[in-house]
């Protein structure tokens, strides 16, 4: 099965494939985009497909198109929320100029590595965009291995190097297995890697961040932690799982992924609150986080708001700001999806995304400017191409 959203003359053409195998999926994507003149293709691929087979076959069929992307914990498709599919976005060469660089071996990544990569990328980007006029503007997309636990360090290096170019993106997923996620670059699939894409366009755009939580007065302080591995051992000088359970009103024996999805904690940074999600409880009663933590960090228990209302309001505000939106490129935490599912609002959220053309994937973490966050929808709203006066 294949679906297409838009024509080859659109600024961004979206296609989707749901087939039995990776080669068939690649064939469907390539066939639908054969007529398009693309600056690049971005693919979000379910772990249902073998990532190496898929990207090798797609690159073979589209050898002249740069292809980037990653594996997912779910897809944001033209029909709304989906799974076991491939969603591809073709960026029209008439509206976009791109340059990209990979980062490999993230386990040994240092800030100077990131700065060196960004300098090389900016030099190439400047050469490619020197013909663009003064109305053009730039943004970045970042896809990163969701199992690397290095997002904050990488984001910090990139943010310090790119100046005023805003970056959004997502951490690659592996369904709900949390075993191995993959990044696509140069016709290959990599783990322990990331890819940063700089994009210049004359189309109007806005970055965005959306979550449906607000802070309460209940606080917890991280009093013991394994910082390198994002493990909190003690909160308020008590075993972490026990103290978290007490603070949010749960029995520690019932802690599971759905519990953490419904009860994230918040961290205050620069006057704003950002969600920090827990991945699991370890056998010793410690808590494994999706985001960086530190001893002395203050965690605030969150209170939920209506996710449909909050998201709908944001999409409407962005539409009014841009005049008209051709697409919302979105990166949504898989725990946000699980929370919405628990509240039996899946159909409403999926329909909201379908109606507003929110396209992207569900993640193990989201990037927004200098921040790595959880349980959030981040992304970029792309306006429509101006129509020349008759």
UniProtKB/TrEMBL annotation:
- List, for all copies, the residue spans of the domain called FIST: 37-239
Q: Which InterPro entries match?
A: FIST_C, FIST_domain_N
Q: Which SMART domains match?
A: FIST, FIST_C
- Annotated ranges, domain FIST C-domain: 240-370
Q: What is this protein called?
A: FIST C-terminal domain-containing protein
Transmembrane spans: none
Q: Which domain of life is it from?
A: Bacteria
Organism for this UniProt entry:
Bradyrhizobium quebecense
Write one Pfam family the protein is assigned to. FIST_C
């Amino acid at each position: 099965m294949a679906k297409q959203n838009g024509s080859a003359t659109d600024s961004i053409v979206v296609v989707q494939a749901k087939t039995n195998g990776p080669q068939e999926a690649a064939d469907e994507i390539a066939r639908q985009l054969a007529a398009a003149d693309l600056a690049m293709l971005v693919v979000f691929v379910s772990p249902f497909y073998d990532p190496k087979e898929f990207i090798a076959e797609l690159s073979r069929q589209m050898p002249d198109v740069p292809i980037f992307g990653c594996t997912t914990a779910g897809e944001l498709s033209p029909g709304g929320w989906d799974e076991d599919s491939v969603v591809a976005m073709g960026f029209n060469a008439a509206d976009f100029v791109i340059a990209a660089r990979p980062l490999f071996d993230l386990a040994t990544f240092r800030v100077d590595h990131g700065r060196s990569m960004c300098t090389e990328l900016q030099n190439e980007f400047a050469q490619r965009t020197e013909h663009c006029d003064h109305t053009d503007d730039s943004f970045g997309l970042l896809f990163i291995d969701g199992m690397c636990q290095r997002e904050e360090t990488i984001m910090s290096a990139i943010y310090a190097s790119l100046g005023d170019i805003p970056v959004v993106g997502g951490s690659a997923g592996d369904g709900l297995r949390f075993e191995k996620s993959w990044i696509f670059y140069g016709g290959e699939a990599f783990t322990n890697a990331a890819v940063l894409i700089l994009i210049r366009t004359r189309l109007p755009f806005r970055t965005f961040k959306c979550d449906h939580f607000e802070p309460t007065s209940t606080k917890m302080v991280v009093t013991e932690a394994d910082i390198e591995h994002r493990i909190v051992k003690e909160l308020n000088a008590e075993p972490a799982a026990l103290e978290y359970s007490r603070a949010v009103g749960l029995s520690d024996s019932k802690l599971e992924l759905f519990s953490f999805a419904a009860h994230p904690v918040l961290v205050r940074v620069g006057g704003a609150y950002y969600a920090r999600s827990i991945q699991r409880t370890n056998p010793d009663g410690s808590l494994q986080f999706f985001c960086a933590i530190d001893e002395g960090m203050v965690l605030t228990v969150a209170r939920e708001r209506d996710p449909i209302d909050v998201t709908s309001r944001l999409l409407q505000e962005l539409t009014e700001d841009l005049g008209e939106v051709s697409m919302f490129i979105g990166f949504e935490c898989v725990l946000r999806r699980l929370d919405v599912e628990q509240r039996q609002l899946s159909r409403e959220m999926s329909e909201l995304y379908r109606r507003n053309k929110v396209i992207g994937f569900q993640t193990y973490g989201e990037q927004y400017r200098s921040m790595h966050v959880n349980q959030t929808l981040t992304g970029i709203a792309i306006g429509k191409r101006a129509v020349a006066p008759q």
